[in-house]
Design goal:
The chain is of the alpha+beta class. Helix content is 13%, strand content 25%. It has four helices and eight strands. Helix 3 packs across helix 4. The radius of gyration is 16 Å and the shape is globular. The structure holds a DNA duplex.
DNA sequence: CATGGGATTGACT
DNA sequence: GTCAATCCCATGC
């Protein structure tokens, strides 16, 4: 069984280099998708030196009809059935690329949708990519389509390895080892709307709208 | 081969 | 609050 402990490897002074030396444990994604969705809060998504801390996720599983894999193996869904730890990137509403982490054993269609990031590195490049003038920092990655645009993630990244890139997910940093989390129902779906499979960092400005009711 | 429906966003009323 | 933009692909005739 995988744990969240990161492997201590030779350090580097630069933030990117230091994190490059750390990996999520082998088997991290080879677990129930709900566990992975919780544990990804606080981890870091990085692409081309641009990065952010994950503050919102949703879980999807082939056993429920909101999941693309519910219909079985098709051309669209084949990445979902790949080995855990791959990126599933698909186009939403004809416009946006959405990033997911494939979970559970090979042959089981399950993934965690990365819905929002707290910008970490490359904020100016994010602003340039997002294109709109004078965006506040919390508007850069506060939604699943926004964050892929900010990090330059496109459909070409579908099927890529999240340990080796080009899109990578790196372990939690010290400030995020035990994040306060809020559970709620998922956004923007019409089926299985009752499942509480959305996870947000509590009191974080980068969580997408509508924000969940934060724990009292 | 035609059709319809999105795991969304930004602009506008 | 409402609504259009726009592309991939699953489904059905």
């Amino acid at each position: 069984m995988a744990t969240l402990r990161t492997e201590a490897l030779p350090a580097d002074r630069s933030p990117i280099g230091r994190r490059s030396a750390e990996r999520l444990p082998a088997g991290f994604y080879d677990r129930p998708v709900l566990a992975v969705a919780r544990d990804l809060i606080g981890c870091v998504v990085e692409h081309g030196g641009i990065s952010g801390v994950i503050v919102e996720t949703e879980a999807y599983h082939e056993s429920e009809p909101a999941c693309h894999a519910y219909v079985g193996l098709t051309q669209r869904t084949e990445t979902l059935f790949d080995p855990p730890g791959r990126a599933y990137v698909y186009r939403s509403y004809g416009i946006h690329a959405l990033l997911n982490a494939v979970c559970e054993e090979e042959g089981v269609g399950a993934a965690v949708l990365i819905r929002a990031l707290e910008p970490l590195e490359g904020v100016e490049e994010m602003r340039a990519r997002r294109g709109m003038a004078e965006l506040r920092e919390e508007d850069l990655c506060s939604g699943p389509g926004k964050l892929t645009q900010a990090l330059g993630i496109e459909l070409a990244e579908n099927g890529g390895d999240l340990y080796d890139g080009p899109v990578r997910i790196l372990p939690r940093e010290s400030a995020w080892l035990e994040p306060d989390m809020v559970e709620s129902t998922r956004i923007g779906i019409t089926k299985a709307v009752e499942l509480p499979w959305r996870f947000c960092a509590a009191h974080n400005r980068n969580v997408s709208r509508p924000r969940p009711r934060t724990a009292a």
